[in-house]
């Protein structure tokens, strides 16, 4: 095994390597922690990579580190330039590992750690309004970013996102050239013709907050002729003028699943994103009981707003205070049922139901039981009724601003009330009609 087949894995803020990612002659990869990192009080990289194992084989190693690769044009360009295949995780991270999302970086053996905290007063270059407008236009039209910007972050590219920093005076900035300092925000730009998505995502988050859920609140903004969404990063800590990263992972990483298995329908029993897998993650958090309740409530809320895209990569864990994580705030909330491009199949089954339209009371009872809720009547009184009441109040302004969304919420909330077989008042709306979806695995 040559040095080209080994990468040193670093965690931001720790002076010793977290471990080593390597590729065997067979093409299989593996990962081993550095004992000095464990002794220095470092965090496990993932629930799927605990300290109690000395070495991890291809399955869990590939699932975690493969999820660090960006899903954008940057990855495709590296594959073409270097002649690498998508499955060559070590080879790809050799070129992309310095810019992994989050606190982790994967570097060649002789390279020093590159990720450092950022100083808002000196480490960022101001983004002029004209440049920001060019960036937003490029993302909306799915074109390469302006030459002067390049690909400054692992979220940049064809997905319509760029990571940037908002300074104390409100201006936007990017890390100065060659600096691997953290950004504070993500700017998400819907593709041309779907600008309304920004307002829908903002409205969805505000509704989640109104019903008492912990949620990341994005702000819909207008840049030139395009609508965009400004999202403050919850995996950052800003103290004074210093910005640091907070380690996080999504549920796919925590379960040791590749990103392809983010929907239950793509897996198999024992290796899929189903209720049993979800509960196994929640029970490893700092507050298992609270995490279970939060996840169930969020699931019911998603049903009410027509969001069937709450897959494994849209739920996360945050390591803000040590090795035991807490749930991240909710993010990427969007009423998928309004978009005819995607299937409306649930991201994970509720009981035996794969679609909300097919859900029966016994499906919901089985779902709640899996999370430890046996007193359904008490749960309805303490959780469901207050949530629906708050949602009904919070949706009233949508009647004039996003009427179709309001009509969808009315339809879906009535379904939820029917599933629970209880009498909860739902405001009368106009009927909402939706196409059942375009292609089977696209949501």
TL;DR of this structure?
The chain is of the alpha+beta class. The protein contains 13 helices and 17 strands. The model is unreliable at 435-443 (pLDDT under 50).
Roughly how many Å apart are the termini?
A: 41 Å
With strands numbered from the N-terminus, the spatial order across the biggest sheet is 7-9-8-10-12-11
Number of strands: 17
Strand % is 15-25%
Number of helices: 13
**Can you tell me the CATH class of the largest domain?**
Mainly Alpha
Second CATH tier, the architecture of the largest domain: Orthogonal Bundle
Low-confidence stretches: 435-443
Q: Which range best describes the helical content: under 10%, 10-25%, 25-40%, 40-55%, 55-70% or over 70%?
A: 25-40%
What is the name of the CATH topology of the largest domain?
Phosphatidylinositol 3-kinase Catalytic Subunit, Chain A, Domain 5
Radius of gyration from CA coordinates = 22 Å
Structural class: alpha+beta
Most strands sheet? 6 strands, antiparallel
What best-fitting shape do the alpha-carbon axes yield?
A: globular
Overall description:
The chain has 443 residues and is an alpha+beta fold. It has three domains: 3-108, no CATH class; 118-236, no CATH class; 246-420, Phosphatidylinositol 3-kinase Catalytic Subunit, Chain A, Domain 5. It is built from 13 helices and 17 strands. It has helices at residues 35-39, 58-66, 73-82, 89-96, 129-140, 196-210, 251-255, 275-282, 288-305, 361-370, 376-395, 398-401, 403-420, and strands spanning 6-11, 19-23, 29-33, 55-56, 104-108, 118-119, 124-126, 161-166, 172-175, 185-188, 219-223, 226-232, 236-239, 242-245, 247-250, 316-319, 326-327. The chain has a six-stranded antiparallel β-sheet with strand order 7-9-8-10-12-11. Strand 2 and strand 3 (29-33) form a beta hairpin. Helix 6 (196-210) crosses helix 11 and helix 9 (288-305) packs across helix 13. It starts with 5 loop residues before the first strand and ends in a 23-residue tail after the last helix. Residues 435-443 have low confidence and may be disordered.
């Amino acid at each position: 095994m040559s040095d080209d087949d080994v990468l040193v894995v670093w965690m931001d803020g720790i002076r010793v390597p977290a471990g080593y990612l390597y590729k065997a002659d067979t093409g299989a990869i593996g990962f081993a922690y550095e004992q000095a990192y464990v002794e220095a009080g470092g965090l496990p990289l993932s629930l799927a990579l605990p300290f109690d194992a000395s070495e991890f084989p291809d399955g869990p190693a590939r699932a975690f580190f493969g999820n660090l690769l960006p899903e954008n044009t940057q990855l495709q360009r590296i594959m073409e330039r270097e002649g690498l295949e998508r499955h060559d995780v070590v080879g790809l991270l050799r070129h992309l590992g310095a810019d992994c999302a989050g606190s982790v970086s994967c570097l060649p053996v002789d390279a020093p750690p590159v990720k450092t905290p950022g100083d808002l007063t000196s480490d960022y270059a101001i983004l002029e309004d004209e440049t920001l407008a060019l960036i937003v236009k490029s993302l909306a039209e799915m074109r390469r970013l302006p030459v002067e910007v390049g690909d400054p972050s692992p979220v940049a590219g064809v997905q319509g996102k760029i990571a940037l920093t908002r300074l104390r005076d409100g201006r936007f900035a990017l890390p100065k050239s060659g600096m691997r300092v953290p950004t504070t925000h993500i700017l998400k730009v819907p593709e041309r013709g779907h600008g309304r998505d920004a307002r829908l995502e903002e409205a969805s988050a505000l509704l989640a907050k109104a019903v008492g859920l912990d949620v990341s609140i994005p702000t819909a903004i207008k840049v030139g002729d395009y609508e965009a969404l400004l999202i403050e990063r919850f995996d950052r800590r800003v103290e004074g003028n210093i910005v640091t990263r907070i380690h996080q992972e999504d549920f796919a990483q925590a379960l040791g699943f590749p990103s392809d298995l983010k929907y239950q329908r793509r897996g198999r029993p024992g290796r899929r994103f189903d209720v049993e897998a979800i509960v196994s993650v929640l029970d490893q958090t700092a507050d298992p009981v609270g995490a279970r309740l939060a996840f169930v409530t969020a699931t019911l809320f998603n049903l009410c707003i027509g969001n069937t895209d709450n897959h494994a990569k849209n739920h996360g864990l945050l390591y803000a205070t040590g090795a035991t994580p807490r749930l991240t705030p909710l993010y990427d909330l969007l009423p998928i049922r309004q978009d005819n491009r995607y299937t409306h199949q649930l991201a994970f089954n509720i009981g035996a139901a794969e679609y909300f339209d097919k859900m029966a009371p016994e499906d919901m009872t089985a779902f709640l039981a899996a999370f430890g809720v046996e007193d359904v009547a008490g749960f309805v009184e303490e959780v469901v009724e207050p949530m629906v009441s708050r949602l009904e109040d919070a949706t009233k302004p949508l009647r004039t601003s996003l009427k179709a969304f309001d009509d969808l919420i009315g339809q879906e909330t009535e379904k939820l009330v029917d599933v629970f077989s209880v009498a909860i008042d739902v405001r009368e709306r106009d009927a909402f009609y939706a196409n059942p979806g375009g292609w089977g695995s696209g949501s």
